[in-house]
Structures are given as structure tokens and as C-alpha cells.
Design a protein that fits this description.
about 170 residues, mainly alpha, Arc Repressor Mutant, subunit A, globular
Amino acid sequence: MTRKLAGEATPDTERVDLDRIYRDHGHVVVRRARRLLGDEAEASEVLQEVFLSLLDRPGQFEGRSAVTTFLYAMTTNACLNRLRNRRRRARLLADVVSVDVRPDASHEASLDAALLLAQLPERLARVAIYYYLDEMTHEEIADVLGVSRRQVGNLVLRVQELARKAARAA
């Protein structure tokens, strides 16, 4: 793989190749995916998805942020998509087979959190992940999302409100 990412400049203004980015940052993608999905095999699949996407469309990284920040956001989005797909599959299976597809009680809390994330609009799901899982400050989240700290506070309150509603409905 000797493809170059468009828009990424080094100090001497050369483009950096995808091989080096994979070697330097692949572990960050896997660690992030493992934390969000709780599964090593799925984390490896997300790693491949993210880098295949960059191989197919290298221009999607426009150099407006650090490569790590960009990969972090791509990984978060890929994991959110997987969580939503899990929820859809579980619902379809329950409808078609009429069985309870929930795992044993020891996994119920993490499944409930994953299902809540899957139900949230993407922006709110990202805020929930950054705030609760990554323990980022409002300022750090604001920098990643490109919004004000006040708006992050409002988004966190909205996540909390939706979580309370989901808990009451369960």
C-alpha cells in the first residue's frame, strides 16, 4: 500500500503514505473500537473498514485536523454503525423467531448502554461516548465537534434526558 492521504502535510510538506499511518495509528483505532464494542474480533474488523475506506477514498481526510483526531472520529462512527446494526438484527430476530435475544444478566447493563447509544442521533451518541466513556471535558468535546462549550453542556443534558426516558420505558 503506497497510496497517499490527500491533504496531510508533514513539516517538509510531503504527503504521508497510508502504510505509515496504519503502522503509527492502527493500534489507536483498534483500542478505540475495542472499548466501544467490547469485542476484539469486531475491533479488528473496524480497523480494516477504516483503512479500506481511506484506501478507497484518500481525499476524505482534508487535513483540517490531526490524523489521530480524524481516525478517532472515523472509528467512533464505524462503531456506532455497528451498534445500530446489532440493535436492528436483535429486533428482527426477536420478531421473526419470537425469542428473547438478550444475553445473560451479567451483560445486560452494557447491552442497555449499547442499545441506548444506537438509538441516539449520531451527534448525541458521539457526545455520550466522549463524555462518559472517554471522560473528556466539555472543552475537549467542543474542540472535537467544533462547537461551543455551552452547546456541549446542552447536548450532555439532552443525552441524560433521553437516557432517563429510556430507563423509564424499560
